[in-house]
Write a structure and sequence with these properties.
heterodimer, A: mainly alpha, 14 helices, B: mainly alpha, Ferritin
């Protein structure tokens, strides 16, 4: 879409809105400088911010195992994965910035509890196998949720999602492969894998959000094409994918009601404990406090570093205004080695 | 190509392995998102180097996970706790300046270490650049950052002399390497309005036994964390 935003509300908003709606319906992309309804902008900021926050809080449960990874190969994979999550956070905060909300402001909302992150990260990673279960189930659920967002109506978000989904699919495969190695390993390793899957299965199903009839933002978001399938549809898709994969892994899923429903062509599954979901959402999960405290602490302890970077940049700008260039200015490339040699 | 001298591959491999481990401790704790990426990147590069170097000596996992404290040959510098961001940057400055100069020289040789060094020198160039940028920002940033950075440089100075003790199996002019390192560090610190520390850089009473397998107290605890899971499942594959 190419309609530029009006300068000062003198234009006819009704006409702009009609044009906006037509563009969305025609599956065109809305770009940062296009006119958009305030509520669309606010919904997107909320959704993108929650996603960005989930990426950076989601680093914690996995980073918990970096220093204990049982082989150097696994350690390298895990470090790369946690680094990817930081990268996803960066793309997403940048996408939100195109809507006029800064990263600082969003981080502030996260730290003060005004914005949420995915509840799944409020569960602890108790054993090494949890790293595999997160990759297979949590990243698997995230991909199921996110692939449709590659076609989201907001251009910067859709493009960020294309890249994120590629990396997430690699993460999901590494989780599956990690669990496979454990499942086919020693008895203790197999038991570790099964225990992790038992603990992560139900919280993963909750990642798709409340059932459709209780989902607050769904209808409008679907109309705006910033959500493309209902929570229950995506949850079913995920279950259908996981059941045969669990079989191949040689692991079971902790649901006695899980059966193939010939008529619907889907797996039927047992009731989800929505009380647990709401409790965790309310802040009463096993790690809510721990996760947000670590985030706040990292931010507060890093304040002097960010202040130093800002102060230095200001001094440098001042110096260049006065025609002074530092003898070793890193921005000018690195020639010092030759000087010394 | 000639076989790599095992003692040298072990010393350089252990440096990379343990510094990578310490950097990995930053995940989820960095002062700004960009540094989550940068520190992880450096940690990954070092881990990659460690895996190549250790594999020249034997099985990488056996060497990383099943050796006792006294069998490691890393510099004491790399095992020191990560401390605040200034400590991490001071260590990176000291270490990557050393590694950059050393690898440049080793890349000229004809062993498997030369092959690794010629590839790694490009990565290390970036590590040093990153450390120098931050040294400038912290040294010439605010009063607090200046003070923290100076403190970190002073605290880690005593672990730097050991880096220039000859490593068995490597033909390097260690005195020249030390002079070039000192020049480089001096230039950067001056530029950053910081002072080159004046204390001893090693000594039997201070530091300097890492290459002989005499480490510092934090090392054992670090190793316990790193090796625990692997050692709990003897013979398992992961």
């Amino acid at each position: 879409m190419t309609t530029m935003a009006p300068d000062a509300g003198t234009q006819d908003d009704v006409a702009y809105e009609a044009q906006f709606n037509a563009a969305v319906t025609a599956e065109e992309r809305i770009e940062p400088r296009d006119w958009m309804p305030d509520a669309y902008r606010a919904s997107l900021v909320r959704q993108i911010a929650q996603h960005a926050h989930s990426e950076i809080i989601g680093m914690q449960p996995e980073a918990n195992w970096i220093t204990r990874a049982p082989s150097l190969r696994r350690k390298a994979i895990l470090m790369a994965k946690v680094q990817d999550e930081a990268g996803h956070g960066l793309y997403l905060y940048s996408a939100a910035e195109t809507l006029g909300t800064s990263r600082d402001e969003l981080l502030d909302r996260l730290h003060s509890g005004r914005q949420k992150y995915s509840s799944i990260f409020n569960y602890p990673t108790l054993t090494w196998a949890d790293v595999g279960a997160i990759g297979w189930l949590v990243d698997g659920a995230a991909i199921t949720n996110q692939v449709p967002l590659c076609r989201c109506s907001y251009g910067p978000y859709a493009r960020a999602m294309v890249r994120i989904c590629k990396e997430e699919s690699f993460h999901q495969r590494q989780g599956y492969e990690l669990l496979l190695a454990l499942s086919q390993g020693t008895e203790a390793q197999h038991a570790m894998a099964q225990d992790a899957v038992n603990r992560w299965w139900w919280p993963s199903l909750m990642m798709f959000g409340p059932p459709d009839d209780e989902s607050a933002h769904s209808a409008q978001s679907m109309a705006w094409r910033i959500k493309r399938h209902s929570n229950d549809e995506l949850r079913q898709r995920f279950v259908d994918i996981c059941v045969p994969q669990a079989d191949s892994l040689g692991l079971t899923l902790p649901d006695p009601d899980l059966t193939w429903d010939e008529e619907r062509g889907h797996y039927a599954f047992g009731p989800i404990d929505w009380d647990e979901f709401r409790e965790v959402l309310r802040g009463n999960g096993p790690c809510n406090e721990q996760r947000i405290n670590q985030r706040r602490t990292a931010h507060e302890e890093g304040a002097w570093v960010r202040e130093a970077a800002t102060a230095y940049a200001t001094k440098q700008a001042e110096r260049s205004r006065h025609g002074y260039r530092a003898p070793h200015d890193p921005q000018q490339g690195d020639t010092q080695e030759e000087d010394i040699a | 190509m000639n076989p790599a001298p095992a003692s040298a591959a072990l010393a350089l491999g252990d440096d990379a392995l343990l510094l990578s481990h310490r950097l990995g401790e930053w995940a989820g704790h960095a002062p700004v998102l960009e540094e989550e990426l940068a520190l992880a990147n450096i940690a990954l590069d070092l881990l990659g180097q460690a895996r190549v170097l250790l594999s020249l000596v034997g099985d990488e996992d056996e060497l990383a996970y099943l050796r006792e404290e006294r069998a490691f040959r890393n510099l004491q510098l790399v095992e020191q706790p990560r401390g605040d961001f200034a400590h991490t940057i001071a260590r990176q400055l000291y270490f990557s300046s050393y590694q950059r100069l050393l690898y440049e020289e080793l890349a000229q040789g004809d062993t498997a270490i030369a092959e690794l060094a010629s590839k790694a020198v490009k990565e290390v160039d970036y590590h040093r650049d990153h450390a120098e940028h931050w040294t400038l920002r912290l040294g010439d940033g605010t009063a607090e950052s200046h003070q923290r950075m100076q403190q970190a440089l002073d605290a880690l100075w005593r672990y730097t002399g050991e880096a220039f003790e000859p490593i068995e199996g490597l033909t390097v002019n260690w005195a020249t390497l030390r002079a070039r390192w000192t020049d480089r560090i001096t230039t950067v610190l001056r530029q950053a309005t910081l002072t080159v520390p004046s204390g001893p850089q090693s000594g039997s009473w201070a530091a300097g036994g890492g290459r002989q397998g005499v480490q510092t107290e934090p090392f054992g605890r670090m190793l316990a964390e790193m090796q625990h899971l692997h050692r709990s499942h003897p013979g398992a594959t992961w």
